[in-house]
Each structure stands twice: as structure tokens, then as C-alpha cells.
Model the fold of this input.
Amino acid sequence: MKVVVPVKQVAALDDEFELLDDGSGVDPDGLEWELNEWDTFSLEAALQIRDAAGDGEVVAVSVGDEEAEEGLLSALAKGADRAVRIWDDELAGADALVVARVLAAAVDPESPDLVLCGVQSSDAVNSATGIALAGFLGLPHVAVVKRIELDGASASVERELEGGLVELVRISLPALLTVQTGINEPRYATLRAIKQAREKPMEVRSLADVGLDAGQIAAASGSHRRRLAHPERGEGAQILDGSTAEVAARIASIVKERIG
Amino acid sequence: MAGIMVVAEARRGELRDVSFELIGAALEVKERSGEAGGSVSVAIIDADAPRHASALGPEGVDEVLTVTSPVEQFEAHVAQRALEGLLERERPQLVLAAHSIDALGFAPAVAAGNGLGFASDVMALSWDGGPIATRGAYGDKLVAEYDFAGKECTLLLLRAGTFAPIAPGSGSAPVRDVALDLGDAARTEHLGYREVQEGDVDITKADFLLSIGRGVEDRDNIERFEELAEKLGATLSVSRPLVDAGWMPSARQVGQSGKTVKPRVYLAMGISGAVQHLAGMRTAETIIAVNTDPEAPIFNVAHYGAVKDMFELADELEQVLE
Done:
């Protein structure tokens, strides 16, 4: 059983982040990086499937600059067998479709039985990269999965729908699933495993290494960001200032006024 | 025909409300484009597609397109092939679908396979020579604007509950059946539905919800907020991470995959306000948010906000109540 797990090192804004003057992005000094929360669940699902099968491998793949190495090392420390990182300067600002196109070029030669993606990333929240990857690979797919049961060459999976409804579907392998949080309890890596992760294979590839050129990347790109800005606050938002005691008193009086 | 195509949604025989929001958005963007957007068509892909047609053709809609699915329930690969067939035949320049679990299961694959312009979770739409989409960035702490220059067709997934819906009722737009070869398109088999079990409490009926999130940090801290809720006369609800961690039952979860609540007061403590959470509580009459992060997206929908530590505030609230 070979399971490929695309992962992303996501950027969170710290308390003092600043927008670049030209509105093209955020000053990199204001970013904190971590492995996407959703990907910790897809990775755990992959590790459990490999271990239950008794053989096979889990390959973590990421499109990203050197920051992404951290996330891949964390995946290796938790138990992935090897890692692949694809990067080129052409990929700065890549949207979900470009990332999916690059992942497809790296994943296709692996001929995996299963590709497990996170439902979304916590920074971009496109919820699109996984299913776009399935589109490029021509793999059958199910989005937003909260339970996976493998049964030989097929899998029974639960799709989490809106409003507390769940649909059970069967899909044949090879397939791609996007995995929802809460599907399992992601493991922590031991200190020893974190040290040993550096001994595991981590391949770094360029666009050319995966057989893509700048023209193909431009063609895959689905959008062009022309502005980044602070959101407007909701209409009625009023910030309660003062000491914690004063704010508590104010909240209590608002509640009393509204509830009676 | 260059135009705007809406992809309506049905589940278990019923049109989903977001369909009417998509039509509202299409009619508005057509007007904003000064008619450059072209005609507005509404497509429905469903086993029972013709039955839904009249509800989807209000004034302003030029045509309703029905595609009859060979399978009873929504199936992502059927929808994928159907949409690809519609794009090929109708050649719309803008396609609006929902940022819903169903559409997320096939729309990105259509965008990938057909070189479309694409953006998901779009919360505002305008026109400047072509469609312009606004969506969140960095977990909705910032907003970004996108154009799709050079794309013949752009597919946008719109956030539910954000665009004004058309008034419900039937319309008289002409209906055209589009016959597509979908017989072998399905690649998954429907086995059944399951409702998440109801718990001992119905949070949708509560007048006052005290809702806690990730900020609670530890399972052992929940009890304290259960006590606070009791003293306040509130019902305790939670955001997704507390259910994912197995600390609280899903019956208490507010959000897209949990419950949509409309209390008179929603007091959110330690909840940053992911879009899926906001979808379940933005209809509360009064929202009070307490969070240590002044940039937390929940402050964008709150009526009152306090940048405070939830534990310290809980202490002070108890003092006030005594």
C-alpha cells in the first residue's frame, strides 16, 4: 500500500505583521510557519493505513521553498518513509491550481494506491488543491472525508456534509481523498524520531525535474491577485475598552439588556 | 454564447438555499457589468432536474438548463462531467457555483482540467472588464482581490450566506433540457446517509449561548465554562476543535458541519472565527466576542468585541454575577 500525502507549511500572521507598501503581500518578518493542521490528520490516516496493511510506504510531498522543509521533516519524524519537496522561483505566489499541477507532476510517477490531502490549508483556505490534483491525475475522488475503511481494492468513506449530515460512499482504488480534522488523533513525534528524521530521504526537485516549464505553470494558474488589504470591520462592531473587570461588567449588562 | 451560468444545488430532492443566493449574485454581477456579462442561465444537475426548473427561473434569468443525472444522489464525477459538457456547449464566460461540500467535490477538478479561471470561498463579486473576486487571505485576517485576465471562462465558488438571495417563488424563464452522456460517469457508489446523533441538548433553541473554542486549551478547563454558563443562564456550545479533540459531543458544535444557531445573545470566548464557524452563528441577534488576538476574524462579525484573556474575563464575570 503506497500512500502519498501532499502537505503544506502554512503561514500565520503574528501580532505585529505588516502589509508591504505596494499591497502585494505581507512582510515575511510577520509570518510564523507551521505544518497545516489538516495535513496532520491526512498524514496520520496514511500512517495508520500503511501500518494496518503491514507493508508499503508513505510519501510526503510539498510544493514550497525552504520553509516547507520543516513541515516535511515533521512528517518524516511522525513516520513518513520519505519526502519530496518541489520548488522553483517561478512558483512564488502560486495559486491552488498551480500547486495542484506541480503536485500532479510529482505524484503521477509514484503510482500511489491512495492520495490523502487535507481538506484545506489554514492560511489560503481554498479547499481546492486536493480535488484539483485529482482532476490533473484523473483519479476518482471524495472530498471532506471523516472516516475511511479500506476493503481490498476499494474504500468505504464518510463524507461530512453541512448541518450534521454524513453520506457513506464506496470508491475504488487508486483514489484521492481530502481528509477532515477530527478523523483521528494525530501522533506526536518522539525526540528520537525528530533527530532520525534528518536521516530519511528528502528529495528536492525543480520544475524541470518534474517535467514542467514556466509556460505550463502560467497556463495552469487560475487567478491573479491584484490587491491585499485589511478587512472592513463588521458594521456594528464596537470594541469594549477598559480593565477586564469593567469589560465583564459591560458584557453582563449587555446580556441583561438583551435577555432580560 | 458568452454569459453567466449558475450551477444550482439540490440534495435529497430539495433545492439548497444557496442556489437562490447564486442566482441573486449572477443577476447583480450582470447589472454591474453593464450587461457585458451577457445572459444569465441557471443549470441544475439532478436525477429530478426538470422538477426544480420553475423555482430556478425568476425574472431576470434568461434560461434554465436541466441536466438529468443517471444516479439518484449527488455524485461528484457525474457533476464533473455534466459541468464539463455544459461548458463545452454553452461557453459561459462566468460560472457561479457554491462553496459547498458538494461543489468542492468536483468544481476544482473541472477548473484544473479545463484551464479555467478559478477562485473559491468568494465573498464579494464585482466587474472591471471581467469578473473580480474578493476572498479572505491568511485565515480571513486579510482580504484579497483577484482578477482572471486572459481566461475565457472563470469558475467562482461563492460563500453561502453572503450574497442576497432572490425571493423564493416560481418564474417563467424558458427551460431547456441538455442531454449529456453521463451513463458511466459515476465513480463512487452511494451507500446511505446518516444524521449525526442528537445529544441531550438542542443548542438551536437556546436564547443565550456561551460558546467556547480552541482558547480553552485543555479538556480540564471546560468544566469551568460549564459552570460559568450555568451561572449566566446560558447554554454551552463549542467550535469544531473541541469536538475534533473528543472533548465535547457534536450536538454542541456550532458551524457549517454542526448547527446553525440564532440566539438572542452569542457570547464567544476563545473562538477565532473560522469561516465555517461564522456560517453557523452570524445570524445571532447580538454577538459578543472575547479573544486575545485583535485580528481574529470573529471581530468582523461581532457587535461587541473585547481583546481579553477568556480565563481572566471568566473570573471577572463570575465576580459581577455574585
